[in-house]
Design a protein that fits this description.
Ubiquitin-like (UB roll), 2 domains, four-stranded mixed sheet
């Protein structure tokens, strides 16, 4: 009976916490971008359509002012005390917000790390081919991990591997900069090349 009571109390506590979480979430969502008669606060800090601070006024006065201008009263900062409302064209405001969000998403390109594999005795022509692939990746804004694996006794030719890495870095130098110099990781030599930052931007 005691175990059942404890389990029941724990269950009730979890239900209470879940309800509290969803209530808070819903409250936050419902307060966002309330317009005109949806606004419930009695006092508001009001900003005019041209950006002028009109100060704190009653909801009724703010709504009347918005109606006179044939615009909407939009709650732009619901968590402020008092909440901040702006007089504006809500349709145009939503359009501008969506436009900005789309532009921000376009700019948010996630940088990836692409890998290029070389060999100790690679021909110069093949280095150029691999480097051109790396240049393409770097121009797209991705980093390039260059790996050179030593097979069998090739490890005795470590200097040759370093020379290959150096040549590769020189070929891509116009668009990429060596972020991590060639280092041994097990039987492989690893180098990381990052895109060069455009100083003009």
């Amino acid at each position: 009976m005691v175990i059942f009571t404890i389990a029941f109390e724990l269950c009730l506590e979890r239900i209470f916490l879940i309800r509290l979480f969803f209530l808070r979430r819903c409250r936050a969502i419902s307060k966002e971008n309330l317009i005109n008669e949806e606004i419930r606060d009695k006092e508001l800090r009001v900003i005019d359509s041209d950006g002028t601070q009109l100060g704190i006024m009653s909801l009724e006065a703010a709504l009347e002012l918005a109606n006179e201008k044939k615009l909407d009263l939009v709650n732009i900062a619901p968590n402020a005390k008092p909440p901040v409302c702006k007089i504006l064209d809500y349709g145009k405001y939503r359009y501008e917000l969506q436009k900005r969000e789309k532009e921000a998403k376009k700019k948010q390109k996630t940088m990836q790390v692409k890998e290029i594999r070389l060999s100790t005795f690679i021909e110069e022509h093949d280095i150029t081919v691999k480097a051109n692939t790396a240049i393409k990746f770097l121009k797209e804004g991705d980093k390039v991990k260059v790996s050179l694996r030593f097979r069998g006794r090739e490890r005795d030719y470590a200097n040759k591997g370093l020379d290959v890495m150096k040549t590769f870095a020189q070929v891509v130098a116009e668009v990429g900069t060596v972020e991590k110099k060639p280092e041994f990781e097990g039987r492989s030599l690893i180098m990381v090349v990052a895109p060069k930052l455009d100083k003009d931007k």
